[in-house]
Write a structure and sequence with these properties.
Shape: elongated
Number of strands: 4
Distance between the termini: 60 Å
Helix content: 10-25%
Largest sheet: 2 strands, antiparallel
CATH topology of the largest domain: Pemi-like Protein 1, Chain: D
Bound molecules: zinc ion
Radius of gyration: 18 Å
Order of helices and strands: HEEEEH
Number of domains: 2
Length: 85
């Protein structure tokens, strides 16, 4: 059975993940996480980089602080080249 811990949110809705629970799933301080709304509440997981334009998780890189997939980057490159040619 999965380890379940009870924690209270801080007044600013923060929560500290217990060390043993975090270690069990490979989370260390400073790790980016995703908070995903689901039927049971909120799922906290390691951040999965996804494209800000199409949501793809394939070939995603960070450009100027935004995650963009190779396909969208190529489409932007083409569109920019056409506009400013
Ligand atoms: Zn994309």
């Amino acid at each position: 059975m999965a380890l379940v811990k009870y924690k209270k949110l801080t007044k600013s809705r923060g929560v500290t993940v217990p060390k043993d629970l975090a270690a069990n799933v490979g989370l260390i301080g400073g790790t980016a996480v995703d908070l995903v709304e689901c039927d049971e509440g909120i799922l906290l997981r390691k951040h999965v980089p996804s494209c800000v334009f199409c949501g793809s998780i394939e070939s995603v890189d960070t450009v100027k602080g935004k995650e963009v997939c190779a396909k969208c980057a190529g489409e932007m490159r083409k569109e920019i080249n056409e506009k400013y040619a």
